[in-house]
Design brief:
Elements (H helix, E strand, L loop, with lengths): L3 E12 L2 E12 L3 E5 L6 H8 L7 E6 L4 H4 L3 E4 L13 H6 L3 H4 L7 H13 L15 H14 L4 E5 L7 H16 L3 E5 L6 H4 L2 E6 L1 E7 H4 L2 H8 L2 H17 L1
Helix pairs in contact: 5-6
Length: 254
């Protein structure tokens, strides 16, 4: 299997004593682009937040390259859901990306020329360099998402978590994000992405986690993303999803 980048052992998470994730066990090899897939309320976002120590575990443990998140936080990048961010905060695009360099700087150093060069290079990677001095609240949803990706890139992480990066973005931004994720994978990075569109899983990812409060399956897309496992994950809702996807294909072809 090679090097394990991310591992969960017997993890249970509960909100107000109500379990949200039950007895999760999984291993993700290094260098994989992983889709986290499941119905609404399945615990996909909670899985990421638990890995990052943002919600407490009722039991179990999470390991990143064999150690806890607190020991490895400098090698972990995180892009939260866009709706969870306060976009009214008065900060420029470049300032947001510079935040990604703080882990290497420590508490008492301010970003300097080297860090600004890193930030500008990351903005170029996501085609946002011309807007470096604009206030973040003035951007469109897709542009804001690109900026947060640039911030994660500035961390120079080995493991990335992205929570619904394609939600509310236009087709061009989605394509740009996918290309960037594939580039990260090609350089040996490991990327886990909360994803909703079943139609693009095979195209976007090489590894998949199927989740519905419990782990249904985890492994390579070609052997794991099967009709049988999807039926276990979505139950009767899978038929409705298939019908909706077929209706959309018909509309797009007309």
């Amino acid at each position: 299997m090679g090097t394990t980048a991310f591992e969960i052992h017997d993890m249970t998470v509960a909100y107000h004593r109500r379990p949200v994730l039950w007895d999760i066990d999984l291993q993700i090899p290094e260098g994989k682009l992983v889709g986290i897939v499941g119905p609404n309320g399945a615990g996909k976002t909670t899985l990421i937040k638990a890995a990052l120590g943002l919600v407490p575990l009722a039991s179990g443990k999470v390991e990143i390259y064999g150690q806890s998140y607190n020991q490895q936080r400098q090698i972990v990048g995180y892009v939260p859901q866009r709706e969870s961010v306060d976009w009214d905060f008065p900060v420029t695009v470049r300032d947001v990306v510079l935040m990604g360099t703080y882990g290497q700087l420590g508490w008492f150093r301010r970003p300097g020329r080297v860090e600004r060069e890193i930030a500008d290079r990351c903005l170029q990677q996501v085609d946002m360099a011309p807007l470096a001095n604009r206030q973040i609240r003035q951007l469109s949803g897709g542009q804001q998402q690109r900026v947060f990706l640039a911030r994660a890139l500035a961390q120079a992480a080995r493991l990335y978590f992205l929570d619904e990066p394609f939600a509310g973005v236009d087709a061009a931004t989605e394509t740009a994000i996918v290309e960037l994720l594939h580039t990260l994978r090609s350089t040996g990075k490991t990327v886990l992405v909360v994803h909703h569109d079943l139609q693009t899983v095979r195209e976007y990812f090489d590894y998949v986690i199927l989740l519905n409060m419990r782990l249904i399956a985890c492994g390579p897309v070609e052997s794991t993303f099967t009709q049988e496992n999807l039926q276990k994950t979505y139950g009767g809702r899978l038929t409705l999803l298939d019908e909706a996807a077929e209706a959309m294909r018909i509309r797009e072809s007309q």
